[in-house]
Design a protein that fits this description.
By secondary structure, the chain is α+β, with helices and mostly antiparallel strands. It contains 10 helices and 6 strands, in the order αααααααβααβαββββ. Strand 3 and strand 4 form a beta hairpin.
């Protein structure tokens, strides 16, 4: 099963020491696809890096080495990117590798395990290694879905009362697949009558290089509440959000966050660390 195959009790377990190896290879392959080499993938879905490129060769072939992946590790890395299946849940994106310990490190599924232990099975001794997606996800939907799921795309009543919904998600999130937010956003647009009817009420901002809610190499520092408040008060949907990246509290990069599906495009001149050098446009 997808979850148990990526634990340290399996042949394909990828030790955290190799996360940087994979991440570096991803950036070497795909960083320039958006026109700027800055250590961040603007839209990682454009990246088709195959972990097979890191497969052990020569004397290490069939064995192991800190500088390559075994055949089993290559397959596990592929599964992390692919996820358990489109009908279940998307996989993690290229660029998320430094945070893989969340789901595939020495203690994977920590938060999910507690959810199943205490809320689904009500058994603190439940062993996540016995997790069966086909059986247990359906059980979780039945037991806690009505109170915990946030998947209903019919937001017509909320929008009808003037409600505004601002969603943001880091493309490098290693805990919750970013594509899940894209899928939900698309489902809301479809349900309420298309983009033209939804655009004044819901906006999605995908944050390149940002991890789970914050952190990472992307511009993860931005005013969510202020942006939402201005939208409500002026009734003008945000066409971008100014964002910054800080190192030890000092801003070293600014960049506009763009309403999905737009992305930030480099104008061709000016510092690539300055938001003024970018414009939001269609991919």
């Amino acid at each position: 099963m997808w979850t148990t195959e990526i634990t340290n009790q399996s042949e394909g377990y990828i030790p955290p020491a190799k996360y940087q190896l994979i991440h570096k290879a991803v950036l070497e392959t795909c960083d320039a696809l958006d026109g700027v080499k800055d250590g961040v993938l603007e839209d990682p879905r454009r990246c088709h890096f195959d972990p097979q490129a890191l497969a052990c060769k020569g004397p290490a072939q069939g064995g192991d080495s800190p500088t390559c992946l075994t055949a089993a590790q290559v397959e596990v890395a592929r599964k992390i990117y692919a996820g358990p299946g489109a009908s279940f849940f998307p996989g993690l994106e290229r660029g998320s590798e430094l945070g893989w310990a969340t789901l595939s490190g020495p203690k994977p599924m920590a938060l999910a395990a507690e959810t199943y232990q205490y809320l689904v099975f009500k058994d603190p001794n439940w062993d996540y290694m016995k997790f069966d997606p086909a059986r247990d996800i359906a059980l979780a939907d039945k037991v806690i879905g009505p109170t915990m799921n946030s998947t209903d795309p019919d937001l017509k009543p909320f929008f009808g009362h003037g409600g505004k919904l601002l969603i943001y998600h880091g493309w490098a999130d290693p805990g919750i697949a970013p594509q899940n937010s894209v899928n939900y956003f698309n489902s809301v647009e479809d349900t309420v009558g298309g983009k033209s009817k939804a655009s004044d009420s819901i906006r999605l901002f995908m944050v390149p290089g940002m991890g789970h809610c914050r952190g990472g190499d992307g511009t993860d520092d931005f005013d969510k509440v202020g942006t939402l408040a201005a939208w409500v008060e002026t009734n003008k949907a945000p066409d971008h959000i100014s964002a910054a990246h800080k190192t030890q509290g000092v801003v070293d990069r600014t960049r506009p966050l763009c309403p999905y599906p737009q992305t930030a495009h480099y104008k061709g001149s000016g510092s690539t660390d300055d938001a003024a050098s970018f414009v939001c446009a269609a991919p």
